[in-house]
UniProtKB/TrEMBL annotation:
InterPro entries tied to this protein: AI-2E-like
Major localization listed first in the record, in broad terms: membrane
Family that this chain belongs to: Belongs to the autoinducer-2 exporter (AI-2E) (TC 2.A.86) family.
Cleaved signal peptide residues: none
Keyword Iron-sulfur belongs to the record: no
Name of the protein: AI-2E family transporter
Record keywords, A-Z: Membrane, Transmembrane, Transmembrane helix
A GO-annotated cellular component: membrane
Organism: Chryseobacterium kwangjuense
Transmembrane domains' residue ranges: 34-53, 65-87, 143-165, 196-222, 228-258, 265-283, 303-329
Compartments reported by the entry: Membrane
Keyword set includes Ligase: no
Membrane topology reported for the UniProt record: Multi-pass membrane protein
Length: 362
């Protein structure tokens, strides 16, 4: 064999080392899979609190432990408790799966019978009705089961977050130096990841809770059944692109009309279409556009994947993982392209953060 075509010892060592790293990483992730949501949550809150952490530690000269504890408490009150309240409310209301499914089946049958009596059109066959009921049962059971370890996830998440916030420069330096990428691509990942996290961790929950609160007012005004439960369902459904909160309030309105409350049902429908719809558009075009414009397909598939992996916490983490995977594909193309510095990734020789220090990752 020609010596020029032989594989060099360096290449063999690189492949062997990469294989060992992948095997060990797989073992770690497999055995510590329970803590993956905690790590994702810690990174999410770190990115949200990063600027304030540097301000308190380097401008105000606070002690690192004090800055970390204050920001952890603030994030718990502002970010975690509202989401936890909705999740806990759903668990409390839907905790008895048999009772919930019995009510859901009556609800669905009532809507189907009313539509068939009015338009003489079988919108759902018996087979499709059974499929919808079965899917709702499986989905609710899996989603609720994924939330029972929420307290454990939150506790371990803040345990990890404390060490990130206490020595943020060291944390970022370790991540930056460990990444086998060009500096331009590290900066690209940091900037995009920050925008994705801010849009998903702040923008989407704010839009969801805003729609839920506005819809809750309408549910009380027009006498909808179980308005507090509908508030939680509306807030969760509003995260789904295209259909959004309509997937909750339209069946409710039809159910109220089928029950004989025609005026209240029509009034709630008009309220939700106008007021709730206007709230959704207002928040999305003002808040989300300033953060990051996430493609609806990323959100749809991210929510499906995230709910299967993390329960309700997947509503936030799922879209981030999908968008981050697409970003890594772009980084791979840029990293191994013939051009050393792609035009869209040209960055200054020194990337400075707002606080005057080198921005290592985000």
């Amino acid at each position: 064999m020609n010596k020029d075509k032989q594989i060099s010892n360096i290449a063999i060592k690189q492949v062997a080392l990469i294989a060992i790293i992948l095997v060990l990483t797989g073992l770690i992730c497999f055995n510590l899979s329970l803590f993956i949501p905690s790590v994702l949550g810690a990174i999410t809150i770190y990115v949200v609190c990063r600027r304030y952490n540097f301000y308190l530690q380097e401008e105000k000269k606070w002690k690192p432990w004090l800055s970390a504890m204050v920001l952890m408490l603030a994030s718990l009150i502002i970010l975690i408790l509202p989401v936890y309240f909705i999740v806990d409310l759903l668990i409390d209301k839907l905790g008895n799966a048999q009772v919930y499914m019995a009510k859901f089946n009556v609800f669905l049958d009532k809507i189907h019978s009313y539509i068939y009596s009015k338009v003489n059109f079988d919108i759902l066959s018996k087979e499709n009705m059974d499929k919808v009921k079965g899917f709702a049962g499986r989905f609710s059971t899996s989603a609720l089961s994924g939330t029972f370890n929420t307290l454990t996830v939150i506790m371990s998440m803040y345990f990890i977050l404390y060490f990130m916030l206490e020595r943020p420069r060291l944390f970022e330096k370790v991540l930056s130096s460990s990444a086998p990428l060009k500096r331009a691509n590290i900066s690209l990942i940091g900037d995009k990841l920050r925008k994705l996290i801010m849009a998903n961790a702040i923008g989407i929950p704010v839009v969801a809770i805003g729609q839920g609160v506005v819809a809750l007012v309408g549910y009380f005004i027009f006498g909808a059944p179980s308005p507090v439960l509908l508030f939680a369902l509306t807030a969760a459904a509003s995260m789904i692109p295209v259909v959004g909160a309509a997937i909750v309030y339209i069946p409710v309105c039809v159910f109220m009309i089928a029950e004989g409350n025609t005026g209240q049902g029509l009034g709630l429908a008009a309220y939700c279409l106008v007021v709730v719809g206007l709230t959704d558009n207002l928040l999305r075009f003002t808040l989300l556009k300033k953060l990051e414009n996430i493609h609806p397909l990323n959100t749809v598939f991210g929510i499906i994947m995230g709910m299967n992996l993390f329960g309700f916490m997947g509503l936030i983490f799922g879209p981030i993982l999908i968008s981050f995977t697409v970003l890594l594909i772009q980084v791979y193309r840029n990293e191994f392209s013939d051009e050393d510095s792609p035009p869209d990734l040209e960055l200054p020789g020194k990337d400075n953060d707002e606080d005057g220090k080198v921005n290592l990752i985000v």
